[in-house]
Amino acid sequence: MPGIDFNSFDYLSDSVVITDGRLDPPGPRILHVNRAFTRMTGYDAEEVIGKTPRILQGPKTNGLLDQLRSQLSTGDDVVLETVNYRKDGGELGLEWSVKPVRDQSGQITNLLSIQRDVTERMRVQAVLFEHKDRLQATLDAIGEGILLTDRQGKVTHLNPAAASLTGWTADRAAGRLLADVLPLARGLDNQPLADPAQQSLEQRRSIEPRDPCILMPRRGAPVLVKIGAAPIRSDPKGLDGVAVWLRRMEKAEGWSQVAIEKARSSKELVNRSEYLRRLQRIVESARELGSVHAVGWIELEQVFPEAASLDFDRTIQQVVREIGQRIRQSDTLADLEDSGTGVSVSASSSPSGSARYGLILHHCPLEKAVGVARALLVAIRSVAEAGGKPIYRAAIGLAPFSAEARDATQLLDHAHQASDEARLLGGDRVQVFRSEASDRARKEHEILRAVELLRAIEQNQLRLFGQEVVPLRPDLPRHIEVLLRMPDGNGGYISPAAFVLAAERYDLAARLDQWVVTTVLASYRRLFGDSGLGVTINLSAKSLGEAGLLDLVRQRLPEYGVPAERVCFEITETAAVSDIERARDFIGGLRELGCRFALDDFGSGHASFLYLKALEVDYLKIDRGFVGDMLASDFDLAMVEAIHQIGSVLGIRVVAEGVESHGVLSRLREVGLDYAQGYVHGRPEPLEELAQRFRPEPPRVMSTADRNR
């Protein structure tokens, strides 16, 4: 360590050892130790300089050099705990914090290590480990929820009562910050809630039971609880962690039953400051990753005098509850009129009878965001009417953003402008923000795409692709999803995302669906013969309730000799719930013919499970947003498991979309899903080529020579 005065370390209270950088046996040589090292170990500097740290090792010392070499190969800083020995032979528990010093070429020249005496902590840990089973048995028998943390506030144990309240199992909670396992929302005092474990750790004292608050469990409805915390000490001066207890409350002083139910039924509602903070974080992430999200502004205003006779606050609470039930847990809902700090579960309203809310729809393309917003309008309308007459009216503005977004404030302003435009147009509608120039260019582009699409339909230029939907059990039938591509004139293809929106805007969607249905059914026998392979055909929202399509299917099935049970039609969840009655009738009509039906993008933002009671479907296709990150996200995994369980109860096959790794595929098998679809099994390919793998081999005709062999 050139240029460093070793004597400067002598005044540090922690033990310091400086060695050279040799990691091969017998290990690095000691160049310097400070006075704290001498006091802790009993060795003078002259006794250890020139020797290796092995001088401190003994019978219980683990492979310090092997650990050091292994960890330095993967990172710069190393922290190790090991049993060493003083000069007098006494055991010394040490925590080694080792930092390598490298030259310009990256080679290690020296090791600077700081040792802390953790002998007492290791002794207590050994005692706790020895009595671990007895301690956990005692905690598990307690009726109140108990959680234990370490000194960093990370959960080390929770008893069955705490597991029931929080929705976390002991295994999944272990190692997580208490704030993640025990998210708390403020109650009647309308003040932010601090993490009780963090308070206890910082103040090194017990935190007395506070007023009742709202626990937001991992699964299920929010719970009214009372909570307290106390430090865990192995000696009067030490601090090893925190014990947190919580008790479920059915009633609480100052809380009416209406207030309790209101708090329990509300989704977490952040304030404007927190909303902008989250939005800015996503903007920065979008720049790095190129991800796509949507921002929403919801304006609810009183439009008729009759509203004065109603309870506006209660109506607002119902609206917030309806919104919360129709967006994903990962999305954000904010009260834009609350500029304070912290998190609220109560909805505020202005005296003028209006309220403003912000949305962040994560990883949500614009088309899907529009569908979510339309479903929200339907839900808001259901609780903002009296006697069939709209008393309060919602206007929703959406602003899409991607890597080009400048900042959070700009995005929110765009959503606000779109909401104002929707309100000026009469409200009860969704409006998307577009600048004048981009709007004009978009319209010109869509018109061009619509003309190209119409020509492709009339001249039979569209091409069918397919992707296999792979069964995860041998007893399940195989099928493929039919996908549509439009030639770009240069030997390539245009994906559906580039022309489907234009088709819907210029009333070509139903005609497009009819072309696909006719083409697939006409070619089924030629492509798949008697293979028994099922085919899934995507339909647009415009085809819902179209009698012409039902008649077409009814005519073409027998005409082309295709068994109805081999054909499955698919619409998105967004399309289905935007008009549930039409969707139910349409699905029922196709099922009467013997066809199957699939609901795509399931779980993508609406009250998905509730709608299954009204929709008779054969397949649920889990939104790829949950599947892709399920190995890293407990929430996504829980959603996949929940959809699978609901499907099992209802007798519905469940398909995971967007499966791109063998790790995800293996986990889906463990969960018990029925099918997987994604790049892990292959990319979409022309239907003619894909069909060759499924077409039965023709029987071989034996020649005379073959028969005479």
List its traits.
709 residues, alpha+beta, Beta-Lactamase, Alpha-Beta Plaits, 4 domains, eight-stranded mixed β-barrel, seven-stranded mixed sheet, 26 helices, 30 strands, 38% helix
Low-confidence stretches: 188-192, 253-266, 304-309, 340-352
Mean pLDDT: 77
The value of Rg in angstroms is: 33 Å
* CATH-level-4 superfamily name of the largest domain: EAL domain
The CATH topology annotation of the largest domain reads as TIM Barrel
Portion in helices:
25-40%
CATH class descriptor name of the largest domain: Alpha Beta
Distance, first to last CA: 86 Å
Determine the number of helices (DSSP H or I, runs of at least 4 residues). Answer: 26
- Give the amount of beta strand, in percent: 15-25%
Q: What is the level-2 CATH architecture name of the largest domain?
A: Alpha-Beta Barrel
Give the strand line-up of the largest sheet. Answer: 21-22-24-25-26-27-28-29
Shape: elongated
Summarize the structure.
It contains 26 helices and 30 strands. By secondary structure, it is α+β, with helices and mostly antiparallel strands.
Structure description:
By secondary structure, this protein is of the alpha+beta class. Helix content is 38%, strand content 24%. Strands 21-22-24-25-26-27-28-29 form an eight-stranded mixed barrel. The protein has a seven-stranded mixed beta sheet with strand order 15-12-14-16-13-19-20, with helices on both faces. Mean pLDDT is 77; it is low at 188-192, 253-266, 304-309 and 340-352.
